[in-house]
Design brief:
Length: 263
């Protein structure tokens, strides 16, 4: 097997996929395999989501968003929804598309036969916040979502986007965990889902992070999921794992009927 250099930059995407399927992690991030060509609708949805994030950034910067907003009826609807029913926001310094990083060394111990090798791996945790407000006594993360329906708070809280974003903010500022929160605002429904934070959340996230990073650092094999795992049904790499044919437009046409939960 060809030796693959380890990843040093870790985002919420790496963490989510590692917990779902280590073989998918290998394909996606280590081998960087190209994905099947997205269908036209998927491309349009991705472009719309990207344009909405750009629109919100320009709006916050005080730029004229009329041209971009009128480029698609959905953008106009989403902007109108935001103007009529925005999420609650605290007062403070406001930052758009804010990148925050944190270096995290990980002790490793590899055992080969009767010999043990000890060393240290190093990862850089990375997050890009759609919108961040740093107040006197509180800090608030806001994230814009263009999913068809709002996602339940329990699912949002367990996702690594929420866990990593709040952890990084607690780790790189002087705010206590209880002073932090994350608000997801869903453009299609104008609903806000607010995730609070606590010291227990912070500690449990740090423990889990170190565990996952140690696993990534020491991984030699990347096992497939068991046969008939539901996660394989709509995986873009299913054919590589002998879980079915490569997804095509016709094969995945019913994906639109499945609630969108990836964040």
């Amino acid at each position: 097997m060809i030796a693959i250099p380890p990843i040093t930059s870790i985002s919420q995407g790496h963490l989510n996929i590692w917990e779902i399927c280590q073989r998918k992690y290998q394909y996606s991030f280590l081998e960087e395999l190209s994905l099947p060509e997205a269908d036209l609708q998927s491309k349009e949805n991705l472009l719309l989501g990207s344009n909405f994030h750009l629109l919100m950034q320009q709006k916050e910067l005080g730029l004229d968003v009329a041209v971009l907003a009128t480029s698609d009826p959905k953008l106009q609807l989403w902007l109108s929804a935001f103007d009529q029913k925005p999420p609650e926001m605290i007062a403070g310094d406001r930052l758009c598309e804010h990148r925050r990083t944190l270096g995290m060394p990980i002790e490793m111990s590899l055992h080969h036969s009767q010999n043990s090798v000890h060393g240290q791996g190093y990862f850089v945790l990375t997050a890009i916040y759609d919108f961040l407000i740093l107040g006197d006594l509180q800090a608030q993360i806001l994230d814009w979502k263009t999913h068809q329906v709002a996602i339940a708070a329990e699912k949002l809280k367990s996702n690594w986007q929420t866990r990593l974003y709040l952890y990084l903010l607690a780790k790189t500022t002087n705010y206590s965990p209880e002073q932090l929160s994350m608000t997801y605002w869903f453009a299609n429904t104008a609903e806000s889902v607010i995730i609070s934070y606590s010291q227990d959340d912070y500690i449990s996230t740090e423990i889990k992070l170190k565990q996952i990073l140690a696993e990534i650092n020491q991984a030699i094999d990347y096992p497939k999921l068991p046969l008939h795992s539901s996660e394989c049904n709509y995986c873009e790499f299913r054919d590589r794992c002998d879980r079915g044919d490569m997804l095509t437009n016709s094969a995945s046409s019913n994906i639109a009927d499945i609630p969108e939960v990836t964040i």
